[in-house]
Every structure is written in structure tokens, then in C-alpha cells.
């Protein structure tokens, strides 16, 4: 008789915990739904939830004593491996919770950092994630390192790993300094590329949106970029820039950025700032919204708040309401975004509405163009290629004294 062995990785069983202070901008149940999605993305199975209504978080244990007893009983009954709290915890809260529950306790920030650590592919992404993790953990060594080594691995232990967690502050400080130096070189390279794009005057569109809104799917549909797109939160982290040649020969660059999320850790915004700032230097913001999500309006608010934090202001915005194939006609009619210049309804997966979207993109990018009507000598015929690339060539007539062109061009070509 042949024995079979289950080689699949055992999923961690987790219980989600939240405190409703009545001051939350997001409904607690909605936030917990998102936390469950995050846990699933990290490879965990949610086996229970617990919500406590309090005026404020308990300073020592996040939740009160009564709920602590209830949580301990739930943890034992469901054989939970970990508890995930929906807010960022202090070192003391983590230590006290783990002491009371005797299971691993992590917070929303650690969970997101863990997902970023698992999904970072490029050297830049890995550097940024490790820097964010170390900044977060450097102030939590007393409440984290020893207890995590005692309670085992799993979610919250990927990335730098236990060895760095148990190191003293001086070593972590040195490591942070080294990562900062390495990232500085990466940022300089990115800014060199950005300056080159500005020098070439190629219009740039930054694709932003809540995580899992369909940004990568849209980039693939527009440019055949072949970027990983999955129905998971933060499936792609590393920015991708691809060019698109319009029918009239005009070239546009599209850059996909890291997805935003409610309560996005400040450590990540700091670490990924150079990546996220692609939006700051773009000519146009393309805001992708999952229109099939019942909480899409709240997600839109999170995106605009994050853009504000990144000091992205005074940029024209096109909102692409994505996944409309999942909606009824009446639901589609109610889609609006008061913060954008234009709104388009699309399905990136089914390539529906993309022609309308590109026309809107072209209209906004060409808004600053000027009309040029002139005869270009044959010696300077190379200018026409630049007109095709950066402008819109409407008429081209080869004459005896040169080439007559009628085109809308950026001011530097007029």
C-alpha cells in the first residue's frame, strides 16, 4: 500500500480583532472584511472575528478585560495560531496580548508589511520593504523580538527575519543607514530616468487606485505589458512603465503604481515615496476604481487622501470606473467622481470602453498644444518625426520648397 503525504503548506488559523471607538472614518465590519482579504493574501485562514465598542483603545491591551477572556476562549476553541488586530499596536500592547493569549499577535501594519515582503520582486522593492519593516520594528524590539522567536514563524516574520529582530538597536540602525544609502542610488537612477523623459517631452500618465482595482489589468490591456495581475491585494508592488503609440503616432508613457489601502502604514509611504511620486511628476493621473465594490466611494477617498499626503496637486484626473461588466445598467448610471476632470466606464478585463478612455487621455494631454502651420525645409524633415511623437499631425503635404505641415504640437516644437 502506497502512502501519500500532504505537501501543501498549512494555513495559519487567525482571529481578527477590532475596536470601534465611534470615531472611525470606516465602518468596522468593512475594515474587518478588508483585513480578512489581507490575511487571505498573506496565506492565512480567518476562523473568527471579535469587535469591541470602547471610547478608546485600552492602553495596555488594546481591548478590555472582558473581551480578553472572550478572545482567549475563542482562540482555544478555534485552535487559532495567531490574532490579527485591525490597528497599529504599541510594543506594550503586543507583549501583553501575547502574554494573555499565548498565541502570536500582529497588527494591521505588520500584516501589510508581510504581504509587501512576499510580493516584492525587484531589488528596489525588496530594499524598500526591508527599510519599512526595520523602521517599524526598531521601536518595537522589546515587545516583539523575543516573543516572536518563542511563538514561531508564519505571518509577520518574513522579510528581514528573526535574526534582525533580535539584534540590538545599534545593528538595526546601521542596517537602516546602509539601506538608505543603497536606496539613494536607486532614487537617483529613477530621477535620471524621469529627467530624461521630461527632456524628451514624452507625456506621462500615472495609473493610481485602491489595491485590486485593476490597474495592472488595465496597463496590460492598453500596452500588452504582461504585468502580473491577480485577484488579490497588492499582487504587484514594483512600478512598471510602458509606452503606447496612438494611431496618429503620438507616444504616451503609462506608469503603474503601488496600490493604496485604508490605514496604509506611514513606514511604507516613506519607503515607497520615490515610487509613489511617479504620480507627482506625471502629466495626467488615471484613477482606476473598482466600480463593483460596494465601498468604492470610500476607496476613492483613501486614494485622494494618499495623493494629498504625497503632495500631488493641480494634476488633471481621469477616473476610470472599472469592472462595469459586473454591474446592472442602473448601477452604472450612478457612478460619479466630483474630484476628476472626466470619468469613463470601462472593463479592463474585457477591453470594453478603452477606446473612449484613450480619447479622453489624448484630449487632456493635447489641451496645452498649439496649432502649427508651416513649411519645413527638406533639410529639417526630421522634425516631422518629433511632431508625430509629441504632437498630432493633421496634414502633411510635400511641396517644391519643403513639407507643409498642419499639426497640434507642444509649445517647445512650435
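Q: What amino acid sequence fits the structure above?
A:
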Amino acid at each position: 500500500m502506497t502512502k501519500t503525504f500532504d505537501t501543501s503548506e498549512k494555513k495559519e488559523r487567525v482571529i481578527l480583532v477590532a475596536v470601534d471607538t465611534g470615531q472611525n472614518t470606516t465602518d468596522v465590519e468593512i475594515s474587518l472584511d478588508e483585513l480578512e482579504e489581507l490575511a487571505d493574501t498573506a496565506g492565512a485562514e480567518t476562523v473568527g472575528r471579535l469587535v469591541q465598542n470602547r471610547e478608546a483603545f485600552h492602553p495596555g491591551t488594546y481591548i478590555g478585560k472582558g473581551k480578553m477572556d472572550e478572545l482567549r476562549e475563542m482562540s482555544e476553541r478555534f485552535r487559532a495560531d495567531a490574532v490579527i488586530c485591525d490597528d497599529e499596536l504599541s510594543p506594550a500592547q503586543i507583549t501583553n496580548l501575547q502574554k494573555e493569549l499565548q498565541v502570536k499577535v500582529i497588527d494591521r501594519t505588520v500584516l501589510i508589511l508581510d504581504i509587501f515582503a512576499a510580493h516584492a520582486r525587484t531589488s528596489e522593492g525588496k530594499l524598500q520593504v526591508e527599510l519599512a519593516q526595520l523602521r517599524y520594528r526598531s521601536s518595537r524590539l522589546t515587545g516583539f523580538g523575543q516573543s516572536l522567536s518563542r511563538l514561531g514563524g508564519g505571518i509577520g516574520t518574513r522579510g528581514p527575519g528573526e535574526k534582525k529582530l533580535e539584534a540590538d538597536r545599534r545593528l538595526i540602525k546601521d542596517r537602516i543607514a546602509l539601506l538608505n544609502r543603497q536606496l539613494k542610488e536607486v532614487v537617483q537612477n529613477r530621477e535620471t530616468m524621469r529627467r530624461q523623459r521630461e527632456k524628451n517631452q514624452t507625456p506621462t500618465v500615472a495609473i493610481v487606485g485602491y489595491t485590486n482595482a485593476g490597474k495592472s489589468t488595465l496597463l496590460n490591456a492598453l500596452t500588452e505589458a504582461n504585468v502580473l495581475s491577480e485577484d488579490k491585494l497588492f499582487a504587484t508592488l514594483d512600478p512598471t512603465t510602458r509606452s503606447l503609440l496612438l494611431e496618429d503616432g503620438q507616444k504616451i508613457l503609462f506608469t503603474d503604481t503601488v496600490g493604496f489601502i485604508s490605514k496604509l502604514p506611514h513606514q511604507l509611504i516613506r519607503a515607497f515615496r520615490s515610487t509613489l511620486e511617479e504620480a507627482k511628476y506625471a502629466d495626467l493621473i488615471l484613477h482606476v476604481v473598482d466600480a463593483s465594490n460596494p465601498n468604492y466611494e470610500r476607496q476613492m477617498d483613501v486614494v485622494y487622501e494618499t495623493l494629498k499626503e504625497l503632495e500631488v496637486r493641480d494634476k488633471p484626473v481621469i477616473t476610470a470606473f472599472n469592472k462595469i461588466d459586473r454591474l446592472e445598467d442602473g448601477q452604472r448610471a450612478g457612478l460619479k467622481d466630483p474630484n476628476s476632470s472626466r470619468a469613463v466606464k470601462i472593463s479592463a478585463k474585457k477591453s470594453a470602453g478603452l477606446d473612449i478612455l484613450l480619447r479622453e487621455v489624448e484630449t487632456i494631454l493635447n489641451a496645452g498644444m498649439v496649432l502649427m502651420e508651416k513649411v519645413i525645409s527638406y533639410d529639417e524633415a526630421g522634425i516631422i518625426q518629433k511632431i508625430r511623437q509629441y504632437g498630432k499631425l493633421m496634414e502633411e503635404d510635400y511641396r517644391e520648397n519643403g513639407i507643409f505641415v498642419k499639426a497640434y504640437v507642444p509649445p517647445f516644437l512650435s
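Q: And what stands out in the fold?
A: Confidence is low (pLDDT under 50) at residues 142-151.
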